[in-house]
Structures are given as structure tokens and as C-alpha cells.
Amino acid sequence: MTKAKGLLIVFEGTDGTGKSTQLNLLAQVLEKKGIDVVSSFEPTNGVYGQKIRALYSNRKETSREDELELFLADRKEHVENLIAPALASGKVVLLDRYYLSTIAYQGAAGLDPADILARNTFAPEPDLALLFHAPIETGVTRITENRGDTLNDFEKEDYLRKVQIQFEEMDLPCIKRIDANRSIEKIHQDVLRLVFTLPGMK
Ligand code: ADP
Ligand code: TYD
Question: How many CB atoms lie within 10 A of CB 8?
Fold first, then answer.
């Protein structure tokens, strides 16, 4: 059912667009079909991921370059320990955020998007990047009201508007854009259609 090299499908977009919700729904469908699925997320829970989470409440104290280095170190560890081995054994890997987030979020923070992309060449290219788009206010309301969370330093509305512009300007062959301002079920149907038209899926 899957190519020998596996498939890498990443969920990207601003906060509260429904990435984790849709990743979980897709994982359930694939598992029911007997496909070997590995789900993961970035920042990870590894040593660098934990350092990144520590920045959520006081982002101002770290330079943008140091912050980028942390995201890259976290991803290198993730690729070596989980992503590359899973792909090598033919699994379908689903990721909640990957290097498109680095381009968008660290790009919005003032770093050069092309340079960020160039520093991610160690990371396997996604077969499909589902890029979720919804108004920033909608995402923020979903986070604060539905999920009951408060906004961290990466989730301030004016910053997220800049992040969204970075996502809009991105032009990579793996990207498929999804209107995330609809019902969970409608979005899920779009996700299934895009995933099941990938070469190697049926
Ligand atoms: P993300 O991973 O993109 O930050 P989540 O999947 O965690 O977003 O969704 C944020 C909140 O919004 C959750 O409470 C979730 O149940 C809810 N949610 C997800 N998708 C939708 C949707 N299409 N419409 C309304 N609420 C949604
Ligand atoms: P998020 O998916 O919201 O994780 P959590 O559920 O732990 O809050 O990601 C955390 C934040 O990190 C999110 O606002 C986006 C940001 N981020 C970057 O700035 N650069 C990156 O490379 C990644 C992967 C995430």
C-alpha cells in the first residue's frame, strides 16, 4: 500500500487551524486500513524541544538566531531518531509541524526565509505538506475558547498575521492549501482526497 521509502505528510499552518485534529482523524483512517503510521510533532519532547517550550513564556530573552538553532537542533534529532528510520522502513509518517513552520515563524521574526530553507536540507522533503489557512481570529478563538488554552509568546495575533503572510508567500512543490475555516468533517474529506491521490497510496 505504501512505497518502500515510506511517505512523509506534514500538517502546517498558523495556530488553531485544526492541524492536530486533522492529523489524528487521518491517522485513524490509515490505521483502519492496516497502514503502518507513525505520528509525531515539532517541537518534540526531546531535550531541544523542551528548551523551546521554555521560551514560550519569555521569548524576548533569546536572540532570533539562537531560537532558530534550537528548532534546527530539535529537528535534526527528530529526523535521526524517528523520521528517517520510519521512512526507511516504509511507514507513513504524519507530522504536526515541520520546516515550513520554521520558514514562516522564524521568517516572520525577521530571519531570511530562503536561508532558513537552505539550513533544512538535512530534513527529508515532505511528499505532501497540507497547509491549513483560516483567519487568525478564528484560530485564536479556537485555542482560547474551544481548547481552553492561553496564548503563548508564539501565538500573539499581530505576530501570527506576519506568520500567515510568510505561509501565503511560500511556494514549494509539496504544498497543498486547505481552507480550514470550515467544518472538521469537510476539511477531513479534503485531507483524505489529497492523501489518497499521492503516488503509492490507494
Ligand atoms: P492546531 O493543531 O492547528 O493548533 P487544533 O487541532 O488543536 O489546532 O484545534 C484547536 C481547537 O479548535 C480544538 O479545540 C479543536 O477541537 C477545534 N477545532 C479544530 N478544527 C476545527 C474546525 N474545523 N472548526 C471548529 N473547531 C475546530
Ligand atoms: P505548537 O504546535 O503550537 O505546539 P504546542 O502544542 O506545544 O503549543 O507549536 C509551538 C509553537 O512553536 C507554535 O506557535 C509555532 C512555533 N514553531 C516555530 O516558531 N518554529 C518551528 O520551527 C516550529 C516547529 C514551531
Answer: 23
Of 101, 126, 122, 177, which is closest to residue 10 (Cα–Cα)?
A: 126
Angle of CA points 77, 83, 85, to nearest 5°: 100
C-alpha cell of 186? 469537510
Write phi, then psi, for 65 (nearest 5 degrees). Answer: -65, -45
- Candidates 21, 39, 42, 72: which one to mutate for ligand 2, based on the most atoms within 8 Å of Cβ? 42
pTM of the model: 0.95
21 in contact with ligand 1, CB cutoff 6 A: yes
Q: Report the CATH fold assignment for 7-195.
A: Rossmann fold (3.40.50)
Torsion of CA 10, 12, 16, 18, to 10 degrees: -40
pLDDT in tens, 36-52: 999 999 999 999 999 99
What separation in Å is there between the alpha carbon of 3 and the centre of ligand 1?
31
